[in-house]
Amino acid sequence: MTMKRSSQRIEEPALPGSSLVWLWLSVLVAALDQGSKWLAETTLDYGIPNPVISVFDLTLLYNRGAAFSFLADAGGWQRWFFALVALVVSVALVVWLKRTSRVHWWLGMGLALLLGGALGNLYDRVVLGHVVDFISLHYAGYYFPAFNLADSAITLGAVLLIIDTLFFEKSRSRN
């Protein structure tokens, strides 16, 4: 009895492994975030704008709430609630990175940016009791809420997830 080998070749991904390889980006984001916050706290006076250009100031502010100071005046319980939420989200992001193939680098990079930003703000919340913000954008008397590098990484990560969903998810689901 002769066995005939199939001529069909199963293609393997060019980059085997999970997207955990992107954890270096999460560590970099958290480190840059903490370094920039330390620099802001050691060089800026609280609440005093330091103009850089006409629409951009460096202004040291503390946020005891979540995005846009949501629940900032809630009495203190929000510190631990938001810390717990950030911890749960961070664990979920690590699991998602582990389950995502390294080939899907848009998704992996987006998840890593989200994780780095979440960890940067989580550290502030647990250790300081508030998140340090210092980037202030404004135009014609209208101010966008102050933010930091962790918030920027979270936003960029979300944009990458949207790009991945819009342009790359369909091709993954067909395979």
Protein topology:
Blueprint: H1 23-43, E1 50-53, E2 56-63, H2 77-99, H3 105-128, E3 131-139, E4 142-143, H4 149-167, H5 169-174
Antiparallel strand pairs: 1-2, 2-3, 3-4
Helix pairs in contact: 1-3, 2-3, 3-4
- Bin the strand percentage: 5-15%
The shape, in one word, is globular
What is the number of strand segments?
4
Question: Could you estimate the helical fraction of the residues in percent?
Answer: 40-55%
Spans of at least 5 consecutive residues whose pLDDT stays below 50 are 9-13
Rg, nearest Å = 21 Å
Q: Please tally the helical runs, counting DSSP H or I stretches of 4 or more residues.
A: 5
Strand order of the largest sheet: 1-2-3-4
Structural overview:
- The chain is an alpha+beta fold.
- Helices cover 53% and strands 13% of the residues.
- The protein has five helices and four strands, in the order αββααββαα.
- The protein has helices at 23-43, 77-99, 105-128, 149-167, 169-174; strands spanning 50-53, 56-63, 131-139, 142-143.
- The chain has a four-stranded antiparallel β-sheet with strand order 1-2-3-4.
- A hairpin with a 2-residue loop joins strand 3 (131-139) and strand 4.
- The longest helix is centred in the middle third of the chain and has 24 residues, at 105-128.
- The protein is globular.
